[in-house]
Amino acid sequence: MIRRALARAYWAVSRWTLRTEQPPTDRPGILIGAPHTSNWDFVLMLAISTSVGVRVRWLGKHTLFKGVMGPFARALGGIPVDRTDPSRVVDDIVARVRRGEVFSLVITPEGTRSKGEYWKSGFYRIARATGMPVTLGYVDRTTMTAGLGPTLELTGDVRADMDLVRAFYADKAGFDPSRRTEPRLREEDRPAPDGATGEAAPTV
């Protein structure tokens, strides 16, 4: 309750306006943070999720969890990631879901705050492996708004699913529009075998 009150106080005094749909809170899900162009994205996403009563988890480099910062990072919902073996991340999330944990896993598919060519497909792989819905979170400096959009159930048809994602983010510029990466997975540009849907590979 204290965190939620603080989050609401933040939005009351912030230059940013919260505009959000209510995501499911009775089942685990994935919360996309995009466009990811600034360190301020993390602060805004915490304020958004706390305001709507969502318990968040997020993935961070394992080095962030060493030393004095470790307990603080975990208290904020952090899950350490060893990027030399990204498949273990998927296994860990699947195990948490099967144990009955209810949380929203915050993922920034761009993987970097700089402009890139593709989003990473880890969020898609995790969603398909666990059945978790995907809620589209956003930051848009052009309108000074931030919040959560629709919640999607991914079908396995990568291009069709990503068309919905692209439509939502088409007018969302991020904190720094010059660093925005268009929502597109590398798998969309690979020719799929006849009858295949182009299921995303496990890239976190």
TrEMBL record:
UniProt key word ATP-binding: no
Region (Disordered): 175-204
Listed SMART domains: PlsC
Basic and acidic residues: compositionally biased ranges: 175-192
Domain Phospholipid/glycerol acyltransferase intervals: 30-139
InterPro entries per the UniProt record, alphabetical: Plipid/glycerol_acylTrfase (IPR002123)
Keyword field: Acyltransferase, Transferase
Superkingdom, taxonomy of origin: Bacteria
Keyword Acyltransferase carried by entry: yes
Annotated PANTHER family: 1-ACYL-SN-GLYCEROL-3-PHOSPHATE ACYLTRANSFERASE, PHOSPHOLIPID_GLYCEROL ACYLTRANSFERASE DOMAIN-CONTAINING PROTEIN
Name the UniProt record assigns to this protein: 1-acyl-sn-glycerol-3-phosphate acyltransferase
